[in-house]
Design goal:
It contains 18 helices and 19 strands. It is an alpha+beta fold. It has three domains: 300 residues, Catalase core domain (Catalase HpII,  Chain A, domain 1), CATH 2.40.180; 78 residues, Hemocyanin, N-terminal domain (Up-down Bundle), CATH 1.20.1370; 147 residues, Rossmann fold (3-Layer(aba) Sandwich), CATH 3.40.50. The strands form three sheets. Strands 1, 2, 3, 4, 5, 6, 7, 8, 9 and 10 form a ten-stranded antiparallel β-sheet that branches. Helix 5 packs parallel to helix 10, helix 12 runs antiparallel to helix 13 and helix 14 packs across helix 18. The longest helix is centred in the middle third of the chain and has 17 residues. The protein starts with 8 loop residues before the first helix and ends in a 14-residue tail after the last helix. Bound molecules: CIS-heme D hydroxychlorin gamma-spirolactone (HDD). CIS-heme D hydroxychlorin gamma-spirolactone binds next to strand 2, strand 3, strand 4 and helix 9.
């Protein structure tokens, strides 16, 4: 256990922060250096001398800077924060950090994509990792989750096959960070247990707008254990306070070029601004005696417990409020492990979890170069570490004394093991009995009911996006047999889905449904309902040119900032533009550097000369047209409507001259700033206006 004053992770890190702020440049062994720009040569034009220890040390260190990237989840972004429970959970778990609502536990969270390498784009179609390290006073607890509640395979032994299939193909190492290729679809179409998670992958859940607007899930059924030793099954859910929101696929592909760091930058800038990401931790609790009360197996990680069957119980809140100081030291070297558990939280026999408990320790040994990775600053627990582990590469501890074994008498028997009552972890006692067999339980066999449940629960636009995603992905698959087999699999989920996909990829649609659709839904699975409506932290572009109405710009900025949004003024050039009132308007960004896909909404303030200039600029028109295609809120004040009129936006009515305000599917125009801005804010808070989604492929 840690003492009270030890429980501040930042205080622990402070002496380790090497600011290099003043003083002379030195070698790694501390000798001051008089020149770091010229190596030691024999004469001005002569060879470099071996004697130049500074040159050799500098180059050698550089040559060794890289470590292996993570085999999966290589691309990520992290932040520090803290977690606080709402109330004591002592009834279910003895985990110390879940006992006292007055106590905060420091955390480090790393978000990631899965398939891409370290330098790949953020907005690819992929699962997102959501890994949280709680620095509790009883040791580090890692909740290593994803933004999907289910996983592709049921048994960890299939993980290498799955990863090899989704990663770039081995002969030419293409494509990067994409599942749209033959080997992925070959594998998943042959392995029907993947169907459910693939359905999530084809949904917009795979395209989060922001790490701040993304759910997280522990995926497995874990076990809480209370002080009396009673177990309760538990599923963990992170729910973002800003709601769960996604991008659209066309937008994602463009962002990958316009700003490949889109999600990473969003996280960094939000924390920098003081818009701290917040998530509620909720649990689904199932008494041990109800283990077999479901029509699926609780140990099967390809299944959810529908929230309508076991409701979520909110238990606490996490706030991320500090960016790391150094990406490599902290975000790259953080080492998560599913077996980093604390008393009161335990495993189940989920065969995926059991395998993970081997893999995460193993991978850190190669990635971080040996068994002392727990001593790296970001990984170092706040709880006191005492044991007989010794030596190894990168040993930072100095262990005085004679004894490094147990039992000992020469060291006074120290350190001694503790009991459950003294805060030791004790594996939950369950009776295990069985033959040694390589076989899965028949209770893991149903691969179709839950994908069907997911499909049935989607709003029409969500279904349309799923169909479009299957068509896109399979459209990149060369092997006709793989395309056909995928359609066959989908026909075991839903006939309408299978037909819609088939016609898009040139496969003969199945004539008959292979199964009857049971018609079950779980409304909680849809992103269309139950989202908190707010414009907070949304980025809004204001398009301006010389002669813009300064009054409009001020009104728009004030209204948006008042709601917590982040407006930015964009013009053809940086600096400032003249306002129609004879003043100036400061420009935040040059239009050419900030594509429309990098904003949540766009506004065109009034000003006849400004509108005319913007209309002549293809970039500004393209900007609005793109925002329209991606379902974003658009506003134009006064004469600004002229820019929109030229675009001929389908199905949209624009305000006539002098008309106060018209809201037509989130395109808000008119001369009355108050009314226009109020409707604009409502449309932004909806996230997207899906009714005018031009990507729709099925009704
Ligand atoms: Fe994993 C990393 C999440 C199954 C083996 N995994 C990794 C990370 C996350 C997950 C979020 C990144 C951690 C970080 O930011 O450093 N993994 C999951 C989830 C799974 C899952 C939610 C299923 C429920 N993983 C899984 C299996 C295996 C692995 C079945 C192996 C048998 N995962 C790894 C790994 C990684 C990893 C190879 C790569 C880097 C690392 O561990 O530290 O060990």
């Amino acid at each position: 256990m840690a003492d009270e004053e030890q429980l501040d992770k930042q205080r622990q890190l402070d002496p380790l922060r090497d600011r290099n702020e003043d003083g002379a440049l030195t070698t790694d062994f501390g000798t001051r250096v008089d020149d770091t720009d010229n190596a030691l040569h024999a004469g001005e034009r002569g060879p470099t001398l071996l004697e130049d220890f500074h040159f050799r040390e500098k180059i050698t260190h550089f040559d060794h800077e890289r470590i292996p990237e993570r085999v999966v989840h290589a691309r990520g972004a992290g932040a520090y924060g803290h977690f606080r429970p709402y109330a004591s959970l002592a009834e279910y778990t003895r985990a110390d950090f879940l006992q006292d609502p007055a106590r905060e536990t420091p955390v480090f969270v790393r978000f990631s994509t899965v398939a891409g390498s370290r330098g790949s784009a953020d907005t690819v179609r992929d699962v997102r990792g959501f890994a949280t390290k709680f620095y509790t006073r009883e040791g580090n607890y890692d909740l290593v989750g994803n933004n999907f509640p289910v996983f592709f395979v049921q048994d960890a032994i299939k993980f290498p096959d799955f990863v090899h299939a989704v990663k770039p193909e081995p002969h030419h190492e293409m494509p990067q960070a994409a599942s749209a290729h033959d080997t992925f679809w070959d594998f998943v179409s042959l392995q029907p247990e993947t169907l459910h998670t693939v359905m999530w992958l084809m949904s917009d859940r795979a395209l989060p707008r922001s790490y701040r607007m993304m759910q997280g899930f522990g995926v497995h059924t874990f076990r809480f254990v209370n002080a009396a030793g009673r177990g309760t099954f538990v599923k963990f859910h992170w729910r973002p306070l800003l709601g769960t929101h996604s991008l659209v696929w066309d937008e994602c592909q463009q962002i990958a070029g316009a700003d490949p760091d889109f999600n990473r930058r969003d996280l960094w800038e939000s924390i920098d601004r003081g818009d701290f990401p917040e998530y509620e931790l909720a649990v689904q609790l199932v008494p041990e005696e109800d283990e077999f009360a479901f029509d699926f197996d609780l140990l099967d990680p390809t299944k959810i417990i529908p929230e309508e069957v076991v409701p979520l119980r909110p238990i606490g809140r996490m706030t991320l409020d500090r960016n790391p100081d150094n990406f490599f030291a902290e975000t790259e070297q953080v080492a998560f492990h599913t077996a980093h558990v604390v008393p009161g939280i335990d495993f189940t026999n989920d065969p995926l979890l059991q395998g993970r408990n081997f893999s995460y320790l193993d991978t850190q040994l190669i990635r971080l170069g040996g068994p002392n990775f727990q001593q790296l600053p970001v990984n170092r627990p706040l709880a006191t570490v005492r044991n007989h582990h010794r030596d190894g590469y990168g040993q930072h501890r100095v262990h005085p004394g004679q004894t490094a074994y147990s039992p000992n008498s020469l060291g006074g028997g120290c350190p001694a093991v503790a009991g459950w009552d003294a805060g030791a972890f004790r594996h939950h006692q369950v009776r295990v009995d069985g033959d040694k067999i390589r076989r899965r339980s028949p209770s893991f066999d149903d691969h179709h009911s839950q994908p069907q449940l997911f499909w049935n629960s989607m709003a029409p636009w969500e279904k349309a996006h799923i169909v479009a995603a299957y068509r896109f992905e399979l459209g990149k698959v060369d092997a006709p047999a793989v395309r056909a087999r995928t359609v066959e699999q989908l026909n075991l989920v839903d006939h309408e889905l299978a037909v819609a996909v088939a016609v898009g990829i040139g496969v003969t649609p199945p004539a008959e449904p292979a199964v009857e659709n049971a018609g079950r839904t779980s409304p909680a699975l849809s992103m269309a309902t139950g989202q908190p409506g707010s414009i907070a932290t949304r980025k809004i572009a204001l398009l301006v040119a010389g002669g813009v109405s300064g009054a409009d710009v001020t009104a728009v900025r004030e209204a948006l900032i008042g709601g917590g949004a982040v407006p930015e003024v964009l013009a053809a050039h940086d600096g400032e533009v003249a306002s129609e009132e004879g003043g100036t308007v400061r420009v935040d960004r040059a239009l050419a550097t900030m594509s429309s896909v990098l904003y949540d909404a766009v506004c065109v303030p009034g000003g006849a000369a400004s509108t005319l200039e913007l209309s002549r600029d293809g970039l500004a028109s393209h900007y609005v047209a793109q925002a329209f295609k991606h379902g974003k809120a658009i506003a134009a004040l006064g004469s600004g409507v002229g820019l929109l009129r030229e675009l001929g936006l389908p199905g949209i009515r624009l305000a006539d001259e002098g008309e106060p305000a018209v809201d037509s599917l989130g395109v808000v125009t008119g001369v009355d700033p108050d009314t226009v801005l109020a409707s604009f804010a409502d449309a932004i808070a909806l996230h997207r206006v899906w009714e005018r989604d031009t990507d729709r492929t099925v009704a």
